[in-house]
Amino acid sequence: ILSAWQMFNDFGADGGPAAKELAPKLDLTKAHLSSRLGVALPNIEVKQVVWAIVALKGLGGLLFVIGNIFGAYLLAFYLVVVTPILYDFYNYGPKDRQYSLLLTECLQSIALLGALLFFIGMKNSTTSSKRNLKKRTPKPKAA
């Protein structure tokens, strides 16, 4: 939530520092995807991507804090989409300084995704067990 608030406060006419960091990585990802898919992808405004990130992190974080499963889904979606773009350690060699930094941050994001999936699984299992308890009917006693 604090990260989303910081991005919101730093968002200026140009999108702030988040847009400056995200723009080259987004262009690289877009070029890679269009070469793999063989089609030209439409232009993506970096400011809109930053707004989407702020919305996903902010709303997802608030809902997650109050225990809503939809917040966990929003945060998981954010991590699945943004992690490979932001932490592009695969573009560096193992001897580069950036490689170890980006790999560490990517692994932290994957760990957070694992924790979110665990939360989702636990929420789903408690919800389904409550439903099963309500559906059970007591057996009539044999006389």
TrEMBL record:
Domain of life, per lineage: Eukaryota
Show the stretches that span the lipid bilayer. 62-87, 99-121
InterPro entries of this UniProt entry? HR_lesion
Keyword Protein biosynthesis attributed: no
Q: Which UniProt keywords apply?
A: Membrane, Transmembrane, Transmembrane helix
**Keyword Transmembrane helix assigned:** yes
Concerning PANTHER family, the annotation shows: GENOME ASSEMBLY, CHROMOSOME: A10 (PTHR31474:SF21), HR-LIKE LESION-INDUCER (PTHR31474)
Listed name of the protein: Nicotiana lesion-inducing like
- Source species, please? Noccaea caerulescens (Alpine penny-cress)
